[in-house]
Amino acid sequence: MKAHHCAVLLLILGAPAKAEVPAGYMLVWSDEFDQDGPPDPTKWVADTHANKSGWYNREEQYHSAGKLQNATVRNGRLVITALREALTSEPDYGGQRYTSARLITKGLAAWTYGYFEVRAKLPCGAGTWPAIWTLGATRGHPDGGEIDIMEHVGNDPRVVHATIHNRATVGTHGDGGSLKLPTACTNFHDYQLTWTPQALAVAVDGKPIHLYAKAGKSTAGWPFDAPQYLLLNLAIGGQMGGHVDDTIFPVAFEIDHVRVYQRR
Fold it and tell me: Which of 111, 158, 205, 216 is the most buried (most CB within 10 A)?
């Protein structure tokens, strides 16, 4: 879809033309990362469930829990850092040569519809694969749906991606779009999702990346009338991350804030 057509549709849906909160929405959840130390345990859980078996998409990292070297809040930012190290003494060690972190709101917060904004600066370096995304809170993948608000790979550092996955897209790369963003690794940008009963609209700094409409889709293609929880993670390698350059470590994914708004 051409950008100007997408922009018109975003305006119709109530998404902002610039990096602004849509009219009629109020803040319902946020993390401003204003307290140094570990991530707030009332808002984030460290997801480690696939360390032993190996993470999906052939990713090569071990996700730690409670390890400040991998996930910490400092100077008003959440910093997720990937390191080249093997935690062989951990009981769930699965042979990984890298560590990182995967933080989720599962069991603590989930939302149906809203305007989501995550302000972040992305890591660069061959093999990095940071993501801001959501998963269905009441049904497993792919039936619960997945909204990739932002994915980025260090092997193609000037582009960011937004993709929708569900039962109808299984066996494909999903339904998505991309945007050139030359300063993804040097500047903070606002990664945004406007989710209504009619569509999912993803943008960066108000610039449209992708629009996914409900119209004409079955439940398999539109499971997005049920709660989703939020995930922030930095994967290494894998099917999308690609070749890993071991000289880049440590490498960090920095998040300035996470904000969720819903209609009043």
Answer: 111
